[in-house]
Amino acid sequence: MKKITFCLIFIGAMHSMNAQKINLGKAANVVANGAKGLTFSNEDAVKLSKESVDYMDKNNPVAGPKDPYTIRLNKLFSKHKSQDGLNLNYKVYKVKDINAFACADGSVRVFSSLMDIMTDDELLAVIGHEIGHVKNQDTKDAMKTAYLKTAALEAASSASSAVANLSESQVGKMANAFLDASHSKKQESEADIYSYDFMKANKYNVVGAYTAFKKLALLSEGGTAQTGFQKMFNSHPDSNKRAEAIKKRAEKDGLWKDPGTVSLPTTKLTK
Ligand SMILES: [Zn+2]
User: Fold this and answer.
1) Residue 266, domain member (yes or no)
2) Which of 147-156, 162-171, 228-237 has the highest mean pLDDT?
3) Range of the domain at 212
C-alpha cells in the first residue's frame, strides 16, 4: 500500500469495494542526488508539475464529466478556478487513498475517498488549504525537491544548471517523489490560515475546517474500527492541534458554532 503524505492533509486510506489506490506506475525508488547550482525557476516548477500531473492523470481513474463526484466538485470548485490570481484546474481521482494535492501549475486533485468522508464545507476547507499551498509557492519547493531526488537527474548532466527534459518513466519517478514530499509544519499552518481566510471571505462555514481536521485526527488515531471503514495507517498527529487553532480563530471572529462530537461517517457523503 502506497502511503501518500503529500500535502495534506491527508493521510490515510480506506478500503472500499471497487476502489483503486492511486497508481504511480512503475516508479522506482528515488535516489537522493546532489545537483548543486541548479537554477529552478517558477517556469520550471510549472513545467515539471504539469508533466507530473499529466502522468498521474493518465495512470489513475479520473472521474468523467458526468460522474457524481465530478458534479459535486464542480459545484464546490468551479467558482474558484481563478482564485487569488491563480489559474486552477481540478479533477477527482477515484482511488481509495484519502488525499488531495495541488501542484505549482495550478492543478488540484481531490480523491474520491476523501469526498466520501467530508461534507461540502469540509471539502471547501481542503480546497482552500490546497490553493494556499499553490499561492504560497510550497508546491514549487516540493516540485524542486522531487526533481532533485529523482533518479531522472542521474541521466542529466551533473554539471547542468538547467532543468533537463525528462522521459515518461523519469516523470513517473518524479511524480512519485512529489507525492512523497511533505510540506513543513510552517507551510502547513500557513496553508491552514489561508484556508480559514478563504472560507471566511467566501462566507463558508469556517467550522468545516475544524471538523475536517477532527475527522483526520480520527483517521490517524488507531484503535476503534469505524463501521464501514477500515483504517490502514495513520500519520498526522497534529490534526487535533490544527483543529484547535482553527477553533480559536473562529471564536475570535465570532464565527464559532459548536459542531458537537465529530465522528467519521458510516456511509458515503454526497454533500
Ligand atoms: Zn497541506
Assistant:
1) no
2) 162-171
3) 27-252
